[in-house]
Design goal:
The protein is α/β, with parallel strands linked by helices. It has 6 helices and 10 strands, in the order E-E-H-E-H-E-H-E-H-E-E-E-E-H-H-E. It is 31% helix and 22% strand. Helix 3 packs across helix 5 and helix 5 packs across helix 6. The longest helix is centred in the N-terminal third of the chain and has 10 residues. The radius of gyration is 17 Å and the shape is globular. The termini are close together.
């Protein structure tokens, strides 16, 4: 899909390319969408995309495995391509948090009333997790290897299952997921 005549993926990639703390980008795609990917990134200097898998966990692990020049302690971000309105400042906020934490993510405190089966739930302390999510490379790869059979919806959930706390950083409402 396009916004203002430009592919959503291109908007997202350009946000990361504008961040001085981001040294490289590895896009993970469904191989069936290779033509759409090539059109979206035409003219950008990016490595070849990595083929995703049947689910998110496999896709992210494939991306991690494709990074040959990344050290165990290096910082890595995982971001949903369909969040093109993330700000460079919020990206840098996650990168900077990895100086003090092993895992960090943008998130928003839930403000809407939550209901389940007719009951209103207490929303105090409930956060809606966003991306980018940041990790030290070795930690995230190990969590994926240990948790490959777990059903989780994001990488912060995965590292939490292996006992790593995640620092939540207040994000922005504009960083919503277009799906």
């Amino acid at each position: 899909a396009k916004i203002g005549g430009k592919a959503i993926l291109r908007h997202t990639i350009e946000k990361f390319l504008s961040c001085p703390g981001c040294e490289g980008i590895q896009v993970i795609i469904n191989p069936a969408h290779k033509d759409l990917y090539e059109e979206a990134v035409a003219g950008l200097d990016l490595p070849a995309p990595t083929a995703g898998g049947a689910d998110r966990n496999i896709s992210v692990y494939n991306g991690l495995a494709s990074l040959s020049k990344v050290g165990k302690a290096d910082k890595i971000l995982v971001h949903d391509a369909v969040r093109p309105l993330v700000s460079p400042q919020d990206i840098e906020k996650v990168v900077d948090a990895l100086d003090d934490y092993q895992a960090a993510s943008l998130a928003l405190p839930v403000q809407d009333t939550l209901r389940k089966d007719g009951d209103t739930l207490d929303r105090a302390g409930i956060w809606a997790v966003q991306t980018p999510q940041g990790f030290h490379y070795g930690l995230l790869k190990e969590a994926h290897e240990k948790g490959k059979n777990l059903s989780v919806t994001d990488d912060t959930s995965l590292v939490s299952t292996v006992g790593i706390p995640v620092k939540l950083l207040e994000g922005s409402k504009s960083n919503f997921k277009i799906t």
